[in-house]
Structure formats: C-alpha cells, structure tokens
Fold this sequence. Notes:
Muramoyl-pentapeptide Carboxypeptidase, domain 2, about 400 residues
Amino acid sequence: MRVIRLTNAARAAGLMFAGAGILAMPGGGYLQPARAESQSWAVTMQGMQAAQAAPAPQHQAVPASLPSKDAAVPVPASPQTPGPAAAAKPAAPAIKKANARELFGAAKEPANLAARSIGFYAKGCLAGGKPLPVNGPAWQVMRLSRNRNWGHPSLIRYIERFAQDAKEKDGWPGLLVGDLSMPRGGPMPTDHASHQVGLDVDIWYKPTPDRELSAAERESTKMESFLRDPGHVNPEVWKPEYETLLRRAVSYPEVARVFVNPAIKKWLCDNSKGDRSYLGKVTAIMGHDAHFHVRLSCPAGNPGCENQVFKADEGCGKGLDQWIAALMKPAPAVPATKLGAIRAKIAAWKGSLGGHRPKPPFPMGQLPAECETVLKAQPSPSTDATAAR
Ligand SMILES: [Zn+2]
C-alpha cells in the first residue's frame, strides 16, 4: 500500500486542468452525451456552438436561496416560526433549492450504503462508491487532486479488466485514467454534465509512460488534442493502435457506449476493416479529442438507475458527413456591431478565467429524492482513495 500525499501546489495545478481540444469546451467541459445523442446529426455550426455553450436544461433554474458556500451538509428548512404569510404559502424545503454541486462537491468520502447508481448519468448520484486504486498493473489515475476516482463497483471492475486486457492482449502500455465520479456522485462543481452515477469514465488516448508518475505530473501533464482541425484527426499523432484500443474498450457487454470526437468517429468509419459491429457502440460527440468516455449500462439490481436510449446503427452515414462539413465551415466573421464587440469582450474575459467558470446551480430538487439520503449518509469507514494497488 502506498499513499500519495498531495501538495497545495498539486491541488492548485488540478484546478488548471483544461481540455486542449479545438472544439472542446473551455476547461475540458464536454457536451453532455445524453443531449448530443438526442440532437439531430445535421445541425449547423452555430447550432452546435450554442449546444456546447448552453447548460443542460435541468441546470437553468436558479434557486431563490442557497446555503453558504461552505455548507457541507443539507440546510434544514426555515428554523423560524413561520408567520401567517409563510403559513399561507409554505416555502419549498431549503434542501430542494440547495445547490447540489456544492453539497456533493463537499462530500469527500463515499456514502456507507449498499452500492447503487441512482438516477440518470446527468441527473443522479452514487451510493456505496468504491475508489479506483491510483496505480494498478495496467493503469495510473490522473488529476488526483480532483478526488474523482470513484465509481460503482461494476465500473471499477470494468476499468481494471479493460486495462489488463489491453496490456496483455493488445500490447497497450497501460491506461491513463481521468475522471470517474465524485465519492457520492452527483453533479460536479466544474466540467462534466454527466459522470453523476458512477458509471462514466474518461480515458486518455495517451498511454502511460514506463514509470510511475508523480502526483505533480498527474496534475500537469497536458491533455493534447489528436485533431489536425475540427473535422480530421492529426495523422502525425493519431495511430491505428487507437482503433484497437477503442475496439477493446467497447468489447464488454456492460458497456453502453464509448463517446469520441466526430473527427475520430469519421476516421474509424473510414478505416475500420473486418468486423465493424463495434462502431455501433462508438458515438460521436463534441470535445473528446484527447480522451474517450466510456459509459456503462445500469448494473443489474440497481432500482432507480436509468439507462440511456441509443440509436442502433453504425453511425457512419450521411449525418456524420454533414456534421463534419459543418465543423469545417470557417468561424463567423468578427462582429461589426457594438453589441457583438461587447459579447466578444465578455467571451475573452471568460476565456481568461482559465476555463473554470462556475457552473449554474443544480438544485437538489432536480435529483432523485434518494440522493438526499446518499448525501446525509455516514461516510464509509477507512476508505483510502489514494491507495495504490
Ligand atoms: Zn467524460
């Protein structure tokens, strides 16, 4: 057993994490797969940019009151004796309005409950989360300061098996593993819209080096895009071995989907020989040009876990070509109007924040009611998230 202690510098560096993709959202935020899946393939460039910029609808409601920023536990409903006016119109319990991003983000340990994924990938939480060991025989976890190496036990088993199979059967050096979920799942304060129920994991295309990375290196190693431009992979860095890796990633029955950038999907469509059935589980989505995202189906015996519905086709048709064509259209001209100039200034200012703009609040009331129980549960005893295997 080995424990990596994180320095403040490493924690600070963790906050600088940003996806390097040309079309990835600033800060490595990724378009929520559920939304992308339901979009028409033939969307316009502007439409896609809007989709990237827009928060998921369930994130838009702004609660009337929020607990203090430091609130780690749910705030009970108004402690004061309600007056006649309040009695006439009872307020919603404060917990329903509290920002789930802050509450789940503050939960540093898993809930001591039976393991269960509750709700939907982009609207749920995780009971009984288990940590992926930060070092394994065929993987290393990145960005340890984020404390997002938690998942449903089925996800932990999947990553361990996939990593070892890729190494033993395909000669892959080992996986660099990005975010899974927070200890109790839930909506994250930064980045992903999904990753809420412990069934999603981001995996880098870059393989592990032939040595153990330091905690500082795990924070600072850049996630570099594998694209040459928005519609094409960069042939200097993209290798056919990545196809082998993706084939391996989707080869397990528990995998619902693997999400990749449209340009990567296009390369796979154009170059995959032999059995192409795996392509049906590889879904194009914006971002995801330096890593791929694996989503597992709801494990058996998880009542309240909601699967995502997908189209059953190879996904290599006209729709993908139209999407790529839209991505290759030149960016709109520099705004000439005064309003356009103001918008451009605001965009530049937001960019200067390093891509970690706070996300809109996510009221607890939008999560399944059981997520309140998950939040309030005692922490699991002696779970060491930083233990190495
Ligand atoms: Zn992801």
